[in-house]
Amino acid sequence: MALAPRIFLTAEQIQNRVRAMGAQISSDYPAGPLYLISILKGAFMFLADLSRHIKTPVRIEFMGISSYGRGKTSSGEVKVTKDLDVSIEGHHVLIVEDIVDSGVTLTYLMNVLEQRRPKSLAIATLLDKPEKRLRPVEVSYVGFQIPDEFVVGYGLDFAEDYRNLSDICVLSENGAGD
Ligand code: PRP
Ligand code: 7HP
């Protein structure tokens, strides 16, 4: 059966929330540089919008970490596909993620980055699916808590599709009652 995206959060709802998150982060980190470490690929759109609402001077860095492959569930096997190009020692670091689901990815990443001795290390995520948590993760900034539904759009994919949608949608089967 064909998969159909159904709007769950509109572009406007997302933009309003991201603006508020940017304001909160600016006030919590009055002095820069604040290192925004974004996880490829899903967080690219959130990072682009969030960073424009942060008034504190930032540095933008990317890491690649993958655990989902082409399916809807985590393989549980976390892989670093791209490491940082710079040292974060002595700097304030904010990890920018699109979604926290099982918590496996962020638990792993926090361990890796803590060993590099940043001045502070915190997490901002656009979406949080607390029902799916397998590992406890302390998240400082959450855009939206969402139920256990597979979502796509605004950077999030299903098998690499749908990342370019401006809205966040639930992926459901056509004719399954929506
Ligand atoms: C997604 C998402 C998070 C991770 C969260 O990445 O971007 O990094 O899963 O899941 P978890 O809390 O269960 O670990 P994915 O591996 O799908 O790669 P992508 O960002 O390239 O889509
Ligand atoms: C990863 C992921 N990617 C896309 N949509 C979701 O709902 C997801 N949860 N974890």
Account of the protein in words:
By secondary structure, this protein is an alpha/beta fold. It is 21% helix and 33% strand. The strands form 2 sheets. It has a 6-stranded mixed sheet with strand order 4-3-2-5-6-7, sandwiched between helices. A 3-stranded antiparallel sheet has the order 1-9-8. β5 (92-100), α3 (104-114) and β6 form a beta-alpha-beta unit. The radius of gyration is 16 Å and the shape is globular. The protein starts with a strand and ends in a 5-residue tail after the last strand. Bound molecules: 1-O-pyrophosphono-5-O-phosphono-alpha-D-ribofuranose and 7-hydroxy-pyrazolo[4,3-D]pyrimidine (7HP). 1-O-pyrophosphono-5-O-phosphono-alpha-D-ribofuranose is lined by residues 39-42, 66-68, 74, 97-105, 157.
Instruction: Tell me, briefly, the overall form.
Output: globular
Radius of gyration: 16 Å
Number of helices: 3
Mean pLDDT: 91
Q: What is the CA–CA distance across the termini?
A: 14 Å
**Ligand catalogue:** 1-O-pyrophosphono-5-O-phosphono-alpha-D-ribofuranose, 7-hydroxy-pyrazolo[4,3-D]pyrimidine
Computed structural class: alpha/beta
**How many strands, which pairing sense, and closed or not: the largest β-sheet?**
6 strands, mixed
